[in-house]
Amino acid sequence: MKKVLWLASWYPNKTNLFTGDFIQRQAIATARFEPLNLIFVTKDLPADQSNSNQVQLSAPVESNIHEYIRYYPESRSSFAFFFKFHSLCQYFKEHLAILRELKKKQEMPEIVHVQVAMKAGLIALYLKKRYQIPFVITEHWSGYFDEGIDALKNKGFLFRFFVKKIFQHASFFLPVTRNLGERVNQTITQIPSMVIPNVVDTTLFNMVDCMEPARFRFIHVSSLLDLKNPQGIIAAFEKLIESGMDAELVIAGPPSTDVQKMAVQKNHLKGRLFLTGEISYKEVAQELKKASAFVLFSWVESLPCVILESLCSGIPVISSRVGGIEEAVGKENGILIDAGDESQLLDAMKTMIAGYSGYDKKTMSRNAQLLYGYDTVGKQYAEVYRQVLNPG
What is the pTM of this model? Predict the structure, then answer.
């Protein structure tokens, strides 16, 4: 067994229970083959800062994972530079404290796995320079593409400088899609790469107890941010109903003022348009089992887990052709359209309803589970660690 340390830039925590939950699932998959420690450090919620200095070691997700989650108080400085500098110092301080604890336990890693380059990769750089510990990077961030508001090109010089430095010193790059890997190699630096996708808990996302709804049901699950374009989905769905098609749309995600306002305005869609609010991972699985097709209309993406979860559940997908989505979705399991084109989305909805019986849902589910299940992904990560530590 190797001593593996994960450094996560995103991870579920008390300030946000859902951020980076897909990283936690990748950790679960990997821990089936290699025990690992995982560190995540973030700013505390203002109301909870009295407890910021307490190291929180959560109950292991399963026997081979130990999550070290630590919070630090936010700087009170009104000057942006001092605010960011203080935050970074605290970030390093909390990591170093946990690393000292691991050293005392003789659990210093042989290899480090960075989940999202910034800013956990800064700690990996330190460990490589101080202890010559190699590291690999998994990246999920869609910011390497220029379309997003939060794109790398819009970040400050130091952010871009350190992202490049992190990749230059990594032993291996493990993007979740080929598209993302090519983008990083073209715009950041050339680095040995291997695509390892996100994972799906196939004990939840499968065809067991699936129910065919009485009316054709589209479902959309996301953060409902503008980049997900839920308003465009509602607009196309409205035209679908006006054309005389019998269907309904379920939208799951955190309360969104814009989406709720739009839903209220579409009073004639009452009984056909449903907003569930934010739901848990298990509830997503339950909702998919009651749906006919999944819809995503994002402006920019990497490869959303919910698409993989839909496929594992035997649910065909309509999606905008962005990021690495076309690596997972093709004619056999869905329909791809141009981002932002509501007329294409309307046509895709009609085509999906008309040709729904032509999808082999069992084969779709079986193929997806083989690609995205825990054992498949976990074995791939374990093999990468072996190659890095024992090359040749």
Answer: 0.91
